[in-house]
């Protein structure tokens, strides 16, 4: 009897586990289905979003003076149409004097009154000029609304431009501060190596500092990779560019100094991740220099001087990477001594 109860309990547990697995599987299928539907909806909406952004970009690029010129030109054109298409069936009628409007100035006056929806009632359209007046009201109000929008956005653009300038300058300052912090960390390591107080763990974690430099370089690269055709992105000024390049060159000088003293002290620092990161930051820095030289933000002499300094540092770093480590040097010396002894014998 007890064995039967145990079997029933175990069967219930197995059943509950199976039911739970099935419910979890159904939930996952529902989630995947919802994700697919959501992804399909986003793909379907993508052309609409792109076209909306393109349309908004075109509207924002149009200047206030250009819109005002289009608005006045459209109203004047309607006035000319009223004047030259006036006939027996369609014309403008002056209600106060009870006569047909024949002058061009009066037709343009009626066009302005109609476009601004003022409607004094002194001049009224007759015939198909009524339909023409309806179209002019719609077009005139749309253009007038756009003129008002541009007037309001002028001040907004100035404020947003100032905010963007402040945030961009803060970003450049943050990048220079990050490079300064990187150099300070390497200086601290160099000092500890010279004092002989550095630990093995600190040497093995050199790649962490190089990784932080890689992150900084990638962010700098995104700034200088911009084509400059988009008016919403700010171009880096020559002063900030020269400061950034100088900081980069100094940072690589610290790397060269660190690797040099590690090699002189015969400390084992060559890990695969460290070497790969050093090569990576060199490649990224080369691309940054190429983008800056192509942007022509700095003069040819200035960029040539920085390129010359960096090339010298790069060659020294690559030579230090290719040099054998302390253990390998000891092995080479031992082999040379054994060969000498063999020759003497």
Question: In short, what is this structure?
Answer:
The protein has 345 residues and is mainly alpha-helical. The chain has helices at residues 2-61, 64-84, 104-115, 129-195, 200-204, 206-224, 238-264, 272-295, 300-322, 326-344, and strands at residues 91-94, 99-100, 123-126.
Sequence-ordered SSE layout with sheet pairings:
Blueprint: H1 2-61, H2 64-84, E1 91-94, E2 99-100, H3 104-115, E3 123-126, H4 129-195, H5 200-204, H6 206-224, H7 238-264, H8 272-295, H9 300-322, H10 326-344
Antiparallel strand pairs: 1-2, 1-3
Helix pairs in contact: 2-3, 2-4, 4-6, 4-7, 6-8, 7-9, 8-9
Number of beta-strand segments: 3
Mean pLDDT: 78
Spatially, the strands of the biggest sheet line up as 2-1-3
What assembly state would you assign to the polypeptide chains in this entry?
Answer: single chain
Largest sheet: 3 strands, antiparallel
The whole-angstrom Rg is: 38 Å
Order of helices and strands: HHEEHEHHHHHHH
Helix content range = over 70%
Q: What coarse outline follows from CA principal-axis ratios?
A: rod-shaped
End-to-end separation = 93 Å
Helix count, per DSSP?
10
Q: Which stretches are low in confidence, meaning pLDDT under 50 for 5 or more residues running?
A: 1-9, 18-22, 24-46
Strand content: under 5%
Structural class: mainly alpha
């Amino acid at each position: 009897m007890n064995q039967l109860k145990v079997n029933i309990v175990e069967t219930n547990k197995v059943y509950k586990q199976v039911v739970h697995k099935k419910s979890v599987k159904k939930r996952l299928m529902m989630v995947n289905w919802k994700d697919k539907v959501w992804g399909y909806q986003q793909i379907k909406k993508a052309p609409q979003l792109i076209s909306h952004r393109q349309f908004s970009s075109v509207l924002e690029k149009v200047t206030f003076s250009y819109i005002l010129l289009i608005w006045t030109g459209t109203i004047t054109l309607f006035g000319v149409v009223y004047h030259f298409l006036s006939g027996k069936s369609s014309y403008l009628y002056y209600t106060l004097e009870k006569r047909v409007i024949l002058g061009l100035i009066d037709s343009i006056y009626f066009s302005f009154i109609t476009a601004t929806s003022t409607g004094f009632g002194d001049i009224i359209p007759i015939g198909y000029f009524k339909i023409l007046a309806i179209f002019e009201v719609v077009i005139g109000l749309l253009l007038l609304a756009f003129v008002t929008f541009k007037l309001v956005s002028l001040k907004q653009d100035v404020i947003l431009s100032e905010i963007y300038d402040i945030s961009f300058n803060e970003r450049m300052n943050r990048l220079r501060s990050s490079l300064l912090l990187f150099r300070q960390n390497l200086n601290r390591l160099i000092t500890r190596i010279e004092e002989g107080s550095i630990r093995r763990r600190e040497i093995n974690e050199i790649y962490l500092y190089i990784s932080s430099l890689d992150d900084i370089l990638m962010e700098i690269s995104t700034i200088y990779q911009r084509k400059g055709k988009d008016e919403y992105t700010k171009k880096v000024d020559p002063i900030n560019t020269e400061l950034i390049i100088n900081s980069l060159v100094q940072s690589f000088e610290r790397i060269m100094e660190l690797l040099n003293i590690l090699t002189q002290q015969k400390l084992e620092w060559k890990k695969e991740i460290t070497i790969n990161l050093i090569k990576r930051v060199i490649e990224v820095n080369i691309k940054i220099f190429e983008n800056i030289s192509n942007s022509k933000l700095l003069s040819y002499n200035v960029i040539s001087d920085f390129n010359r300094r960096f090339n010298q540092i790069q060659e020294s770093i690559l030579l230090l990477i290719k040099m054998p480590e302390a253990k390998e040097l000891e092995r080479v010396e031992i082999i040379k001594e054994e060969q000498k002894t063999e020759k003497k014998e």
